[in-house]
Amino acid sequence: MNHKKILFITPRAYVKTNERASGITRVLTKRYDIHVILVNYEGKSPIQNLIKLLLSIPKIYFFGIKYNADIILCELIELGFIGTILSILKGRPCIWDVQRNTLNLCKELNKPKVLEIIYIGIERILWRFVKKVLVSADAEKQAYAVQGLDSRKIEVIPISADFGLTKEIDTDKTNLRNKLGINLNKKILLFFGGLDYQPNKIAAQWINNNLAPAIHDRFGENIDILIVGNGEICNERHHPIVNFLGFKSNIFEYIYASDIVIVPVWKGEGQQTKLIDSMMCAKLTIVNKISSVGIPQLIDGYNTIIAQNKDEFIMKTLIALKNIDNLGEIEINAKRMIETHYNWDRWKQNLYEIIEK
Question: Domain containing 110: what range?
Answer without folding.
Answer: 5-160+343-356
